[in-house]
Amino acid sequence: MAPLVVHVTGARPNFPKAAPVLQALSAYPVEQLLVHTGQHYDDAMSEVFFRQLGIPKPDVNLGVGSGAHGAQTAKVMEALEELFTQRRPDLVVVYGDVNSTVAAALVASKMGITFAHVEAGLRSFDMTMPEEINRLVTDKLSDLLLTTSTDAIAHLGNEGTAPEKIHFVGNPMIDTLLTHRERFDAAAVRAELGIEGDYLVATLHRPGNVDDPDDVRALVAAMHAVADQAQVVIPLHPRGRARLEDAGFLDHPGMRVVDPLGYLEFMGLVRGSVGVVTDSGGVQEETTILGVPCLTLRPNTERPVTITHGTNQLVTRDTLAERVREILAAGKLTQWPTPPLWDGHAGERIAAVLASSLGAVRP
Ligand code: UD1
Ligand code: UDP
Hints:
The chain is α/β, with parallel strands linked by helices. The chain folds into two domains: about 5-170 and about 340-360, Glycogen Phosphorylase B (Rossmann fold, 3-Layer(aba) Sandwich), CATH 3.40.50.2000; about 180-330, Rossmann fold, CATH 3.40.50.2000. Helix content is about 45%, strand content about 15%. It has 16 helices and 13 strands. The strands form two sheets. It has a seven-stranded parallel beta sheet, sandwiched between helices. Strands 10-9-8-11-12-13 form a six-stranded parallel beta sheet, sandwiched between helices. Helix 1 packs across helix 16 and helix 8 (about 185-195) crosses helix 12 (about 265-270). The chain is globular. The two termini are about 15 Å apart. The protein binds uridine-diphosphate-N-acetylglucosamine and uridine-5'-diphosphate. Uridine-diphosphate-N-acetylglucosamine binds near residues 12, 41 and 239. The site of uridine-diphosphate-N-acetylglucosamine (UD1) has 18 residues, from helix 5. This is UDP-N-acetyl glucosamine 2-epimerase. One of its GO terms (molecular function) is isomerase activity. Keywords: Isomerase. Belongs to the UDP-N-acetylglucosamine 2-epimerase family.
């Protein structure tokens, strides 16, 4: 019987990471089961990725929905424990740093099931971020640690992870970007949204920016100073939307808030922009490959390779307007470095590591 590989996904950033792994692993004699925990459930946060990226419909949806960290993580754990007890996977694969990731890691490791972490070893060293806690716990328990950058290998080494567990495979999110790049239609998105002239894109959803009312007020003022210089289009994540709107986010003629966009539309929007202001992890990586200047509104990043090898820089609310002035004056980049192994073949390298751990050989 073919070995069973269970992929656990659940939140928006998981889907473009899992897509190339599912695809590449289908060339091997393994059975694959795709689990969606239901952490994200709006069409624009979930299903649109499956439709646009050709990801198979999840075999199982655990339907956990939203909740406080403990409750949400516990619901995923309870449902996965039952599923793993029934199906007895030979390997579990988890992606990124969301609550669904750490929940699957805890269940798999306690049940003695081998599991692999795609995007292991990233560190912001900021324990106020829930994602940092999720990364540390997941990596500590992982049997196979698949890394996107060399700094991640160094962090894992410093934490005492055995070198034979670590595999430098590149970035599967970038596989997805390169596969679908020709479908990112900046002109179509511009027409659809009625945008004229130069524009910046913003995405903001980190608790550190949008949860506390004082932070929100300061963020609104900082973003209005950006909109004084160029119009800003913001596909706004549901987290914090009400708080931002209540604090007057929209009370500026240059601010344009839209609902979260599908992957292709979002990437088209970014591709056609003069720059991005974000607190997203994935967007720092995508702008690096598209050559779009990226201002990350955070005190730190777990993706420093997007600064050393990309278009990213960290900004504060106080420095944001000045950095926007600089990127608008500098114009489009013509040359920039890109990180090693962000070449569109990470999914194949990941599949090869997973298959080899199962003794599965390509026919
Ligand atoms: C989660 C991840 C974060 C990631 C982000 C990507 C954790 C701890 N955080 O944050 O790392 O950057 O996803 O988007 O896992 N909501 C909806 N519709 C949905 C999903 C959520 O309206 O489909 C709203 C709910 O009010 C929910 C809130 O958004 O309470 C937050 O959702 P949640 O999944 O808990 O965290 P995110 O902020 O999305
Ligand atoms: N994204 C999208 N539509 C949007 C915003 C984001 O398709 O309106 C995509 C984009 O590819 C991004 C990914 O969703 O990289 C995950 O983004 P998010 O900021 O939610 O998560 P993070 O990477 O911060 O965990």
